[in-house]
Amino acid sequence: MVSETKISLEQFKKLSRIVYKESGIVLNEQKYNLLVARLSKRMRLTKISSVSDYIQEISSNPDEFIEFIDATTTNHTFFFRENKHCEYIIKTLDNKKPLKIWSAASSSGEEAFSLAVQLLANSFLFNIYASDVSDSMLALGQRAIYPKEKIRAVPPSMLHTYFQRGKGKWKGHVRIKPEVQQHVKFEKFNLLSSTPFDTFDIIFCRNVMIYFDTPTRQKVVNTLCRALNPGGYFFVGMSESLTGLEHNLTTVLPSGYKKK
Ligand SMILES: C[S@@+](CC[C@H](N)C(=O)[O-])C[C@H]1O[C@@H](n2cnc3c(N)ncnc32)[C@H](O)[C@@H]1O
Question: Which of 100, 172, 190, 196 is most buried, taking the most CB atoms under 10 A from its CB?
């Protein structure tokens, strides 16, 4: 079976370099098993039985290259994750002033839709841009249908107002209502790109820089700070911080920053 195939250290390093160059994600030797598992899945699906043939395939087939990068990213997320940041926005900002928000590294959209339902419930005027490097995650966000396990932390009143319960083959799923979906636009964006596509009042870049090394984190922070309007807010994951990086932000709450 492919999943029992060993990858040589040289092949592991080659694949790690490809992932690092494309997404900034560092796969050190502790991630060997993770890479083997995800690579094995791609090899099974593409019916390629040797690692060297697979490396050849991703060098010559851009579609499989995208699938491979997709397979190596960690996409775990859920609704109302680390919700203190959203509560802070609602408590602090004026709901009459339109907000342009970027959920950078949005995965399948739960972060963006969690913000959207709470901002709508508090009569904010806003647009959210949700971006990710992974095409498959963006497709899930655009579909806006989620299994029930993802909504455990959503308060019942919000569920009732902004989510539709699935029936028939969609039993056990919910769909985000169109009036919420119209506030969220999904776009592909690689955080390694140094040209942000717009400027924003609030940027979320949570639970992704943890996978980057310090030079990559610094590069991403530089790019996102440039995309942040003066007085704008920047949030990273609760287990992340900007300690050790250069930036022009002041801390306003744990993992929450404001541009001067
Ligand atoms: C763990 S999820 C975080 C989702 C959400 N922000 C949260 O906090 O729950 C990390 C996401 O970062 C994305 N990602 C990894 N490298 C990226 C890159 N270079 N550019 C954009 N997104 C990237 C992955 O595809 C994945 O969907």
Answer: 196
